[in-house]
Amino acid sequence: MLTLEAVSATLANVQVLRGISVRFGRGATVAIVGRNGAGKTTLLRLMMGCMPKHTGRVIFDGHDLSSLPARGRAGLGIGYAPEDRVLFPSFSVEGNLRFPCEVIGLAQRAVDARLAETLAIVPELEAMLPRSAAALSGGQGKMVALGRAIMAGTKLVLLDEPFQGLAPVLATQYGTSLQRLIRARPELCIVITESNRSLLKNIPSETLVLERGELQRSDAATPHSH
Fold this sequence. Notes:
31% helix; Rossmann fold; 27% strand; four-stranded antiparallel sheet; disordered C terminus; globular
């Protein structure tokens, strides 16, 4: 599915990622945990094509993505919810959800079908559809960013610090939505970064620890069942 081969990245003359080689398989739900500043966001941005200056290779479904920009990766079925949400404030919630599918040229009927599936997975979004994205709380914005990632991510979904700053009720809803997503799309690969591994106790099938720019396997993974 997704393979990183000897990937390294530098930010502001500091090496953040050091020779990471890892494979994320179809149907896996993987947590990448690490302290703040460990490089988790950099790693996801690199997978998504938002880090043009890096060494090593990113291979998805057998294709080398090195020269493919971020918007081209959405067309391959990769969805991404950045930590800071990055919604379009002038769009409605529905407009934000539909946007990645429209950019890659999906037919209206296909976009409608994806929206219906996304609302079944994250039902809290339905009441928000007509609202302006600018009027959302931070937690609501995180839910919309999850929905948008699901809209585009038919094969791979990348979620950066999704539980960061969520009130307990929203955190529970978010976790429930992730479990629905795993059941609805058993072939989907989901990669989640988080500083606090206890927030993911009911979700990942595998846990990796990012420390000093290197990924290590953790014995603390919690298996999930489909």
